[in-house]
Structure formats: structure tokens, C-alpha cells
Amino acid sequence: MDNREKLIQLERSNLPFCAFALPDSSDVVVMVQGDEDFESEKPEGMVMAPYEESEDCPTIYIRPDFLGTMDELNLSQFDYVHFEDSGYLVENMQPAWREGYLDTCEQLIDRLQAGEAEKVVLSVMDPRPYNAIYTDLFLKAVKDYPKAFVYLLHAPGTFTGMGASPEVLLERQGAQCRTMSLAGTKKKEGEEWTVKEREEQEIVTRYILEQLDQGQVSDLQYSEPYDEEAGPLVHLRSDILFQTERSDREILDLLHPTPAVCGQPLEAAKRLISELEEHDRRYYTGYIGFAGAQVSRYFVNLRCMEKKDYYAICYAGGGVTSSSDPVDEWQEVINKLEVMGRFIPTYHD
Fold first, then answer.
1. 228 beta partners
2. In the chain, what are the domains?
3. Could you read off the pLDDT of 104-132 as tens digits, one per residue?
4. Per the CB 3.0–4.6 Å rule, which of 136, 153, 193, 339 could disulfide with 303?
């Protein structure tokens, strides 16, 4: 059985697993759990947290009963069966059509101009007909997005999907930690950063620094913004370094969700999102990563798609401020949708 076939068998099984490639690496690593209990918190392993936790959308924990390369994986060591996952029925899911987005964006801008918030990330979901395996899409994404954390995760009956994220939420080695402020989006070809995009990134940086300062970390340092390529797109990035003895969970709770995926002020942005977005974000804009005894790495779940019924649900969003242009925001969302959606073509009016 070759490595591709191993992944296909896992994707169709009752075993929770996550295959992933780290940034700047084409090596696929796989973590497999030998039983179906993926809702109990574990001291080490893969973690996938939703935007907001609920009974239907729990945090997923995968214990590393096996952790290694695809060549090292021997499926015969596991007692697994074929799992027929019908996914979720696609009900009341509005695809990302231009006029609907523009109308919602205009409503949001009016409320931002009235002072309800400084910035809100408005997202869309885009159901695309697809009823095949995700293994081949994942392997293609590993090749196409070498600078991203690329994953394929399967939690039977709860989540099957994949993503490619350029954004580190937390990296840790002992007490040494790193996060980043990543915001603003443009295509690579010759565009200049706008004042709005630079302000958006500064909002994220300021929020993260304030949160970490409240979290009693030490030796807090940060870089000036610079360009970070992510596939066909470029973002503004600042690196933030610090030291702490606090747990991963405590730091993650301080950082998630950042203004890069929610808005500022946080509670006002959350309220506007719940009022204006007609879909459930589920695991989009949550985080995914792995915890170890000494080393941990977590990424914001940005460019992602999820299997639901006979569809691949693609998600994307963009930061909206009082000075935003709805047409420009729509184009940014379309550009982001295509990071994952390019593997499953569709049509946008």
C-alpha cells in the first residue's frame, strides 16, 4: 500500500487523524489515534479549536498513538473499520454571492461609522459541489503552499477537512514563545499597501501586545511590519517574541480570537459578527496545532474547507473598517477563497 492509499484508508476510517506539513517543509507527518474519543483534552497531541465552542462544534484532541512519516505508518497496528460519514446537511447555507456580500458589508460600514466598533472581520462561506476524497487535494496543497501549515484532519462524525495557514498563533519551546500579527491582503503584482491596510495590521499588533502585557509575560519584543507571502497573496506581518511560564492554554485564551479574525474592540466585533453573518464559522478562524512536552506550535485556521454532505465548504473573510470600500472588500474575500477553492472551481457573479 503506497502512502497516498494509506491516507485514503485513514480518511475513510473511524480513526481520528491529522496529516500535516510544516512551513518550509514538504515532509508529510501523520498523527493517528487508536480510538474514537477525540473530545477529551489530552496533555500532548493535535488540537483543533473552533471560532466559538459549542455542542456541535467541540474542540478536537487527537492523541499521538502514532506520530511519524507516511513511510513509517503501518495501518495493521490499528483496529479500524470503514466509516461512512454522510457529513452535515447543507441547509440554510448562503454561498458567497456578490450582491449579498456588498449589502451586508454596507450595513456593517454604516454601523462602524456610527461608532459601534473600530474593525470587524466579515466572513463568507462558499459551498462547492464535491463528493470525492480530500487526500489528493491535501497533497496538492502541500506542494502549492510551501510557506504554510497545511493539514488534513479527520474526526469521524464531527469534522473532515483541510487548510493551509500562514499565520502562527503560538510557537513555544520551553519558556521561549513567538506569535505574529498578520493582517492586510494584496496580490503580489505591484500593488502598494493602503493606509487602511496598514492601520488594520497596527490594530492587530496593538491588541496582541496589550493582551500579552496583561498576561504577565516577560521580555516582550516586536518587529516592524514586513511583507509575508502566502501563496498568491501577500500580508503585512510583525513578529512578537516573549517569555512565559504560563501554560499553552492560558496564552491561547489570551490571544484567540485576535482582531485579525474577529475585530476590535473584541466584544463589540463578536456581537456584530453574530448579527450580520448568516452562517456558523465552525472551525474557520479557530486554531489548529500540536502540543508537546517542550515544543508546541499552533496556527490560526484561516484558509480552510470542510466536508459537509456532498459539498466542500470554503471559508474566507476580510477586515472591514469605517473607511472600507465594499467592492474592494469583496475582491479580497474572493482572492482568499481561491487559496483553497482553486482546487474545486465554481462561479461568482
1. 235
2. 3-80+94-341 (3.60.120.10)
3. 999 999 999 999 999 999 999 999 989 88
4. 339
